[in-house]
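Researcher: Next entry in the queue.
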Amino acid sequence: MPNTPDTLALADSLRAPLLRVARRLRQEAQRVGSSALDALILGHVRRNPGIGVSDLADAEQMSRPSMSSHVKRLEAAGWILRSDHSEDGRRSGFEITPQGQAQLDAVRQRRNDWLAERLARLSPEARDALAAANEPLLELLSLDQ
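Model: Structure for this entry, 145 residues:
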């Protein structure tokens, strides 16, 4: 389906607000002592105990050496630990620690608080419009798969 003037105009009008909201949510993660990438990695490890560096790198579309250095930092912080959940004895995976889960919870709480505080200031109509946009925005992400 080709781009139309309507879809190009909509893309242009949505891009900046979406990027700004995403940036602010990343900043909220930093306020509790982690990066947005830390939170993403912790979330992957929590949902997929035993996941390895290669699969984490693929999930975040980054190089294995870069992911390895992030994982080592999370390990040193005590947020993840190596596990033997893998079926391949030559490969170790990771699992989230209680401290890592607490950090992930703190990031989520901080982000949710930031967003809820701003949503509360909007009119009911504006909140309804955002609620209606939830499914189409999620659909945008699924189109890449």
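Model: The domain at 34-142 is CATH 1.10.10.10 (Arc Repressor Mutant, subunit A).
Researcher: Noted, moving on.
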